[in-house]
Amino acid sequence: MIVIDEKRIFDEIERRKPVSVALNGPDGILPKIQDTASAIMERFGIPAYVLADSCFGTCDMNTNGAKVLGAEILFHIGHTVNSTSFGDNVVLVDAFDNISFDNIAKKCAEEFRGKTISLVTDSQHLHEVDRVKSILEQGGVQVKIGKGKGQLNDGQVFGCEFYPVMETREVVDANIFLGQSNFHAAGIALSTNRPTFVLDPYFNEIREVTEFAQGLQKKAILAVYKAAEAESFGIIVGLKEGQFSKMTALKFRKELESLGKKVQLFALTDITDDKLQNLRGVDAFIQVACPRISTDNHFHRPVLSTPQANALVKILKKENVENILQVPHWL
Ligand code: SF4
Questions:
Q1: Structural domain tally of the chain?
Q2: Is the pLDDT of residue 242 over 80?
């Protein structure tokens, strides 16, 4: 069960006495966020708005939504990073999953006895890392926990940022991800090119995602080679605040034009196949927002992420391309 650190929210409201607040977080915990918003309204009598648009990370906090509503504080819940606030108006609040990993960790120790693994997780399960490490070590497994970087804590990954597992990949037999997210685990498998397993405490199962990730990789590479045949490109700037990367878009425009390609520039908040279907005169797209939009979704025309677009430029320049996604940060 997800537990939101409501004390931190209540203390902040007591201290700052805002006239109204807003809350948001990942889709999966929205019902819990609704409960917290109701608790705020009951306890303090102030409006507490739930920003219910999809929200995939600290790259996607919708501070503009809070500003439009006049909310003085935005409580961004469930994306734990190694800081507790962004500026004065955004407060980051932890939401931890209180399920125990003990049983599945013991099962994992039996399966991986004698092996060396990299232990890694997402925001909701960071507090379990030390406990699982000690269960695995008692069972004869060597455990590495890679160092965090940027916003990442040690042993933590985002969907596009993999520093801890990239640090350990040469010295481990496999990556073990704590949680239920095939999305994060597939990213780990793709970036490290190592066997990767999900330790899922809800189903009490150890799930390998290596093959699934290889499928995503094949699709990503195929899109790059299809785009290499294109004459006209649409370059899309994402309008979500933490995914805004206009300079990268303009860099790709310059490179593609110097290689004789036609370029149009677009900006979108949500980059979906439906939205792109409306756009004419474009053989292939490059989007410089969230890289997982390109790797994890189906599009009728190639839609390349930043690392894929870097590979495309190399191919067009007849340079060597290898290991497109084996980089610690896909932006
Ligand atoms: S994968 Fe996408 S949503 Fe997740 S942190 Fe990276 S840019 Fe943001």
A1: 3
A2: yes
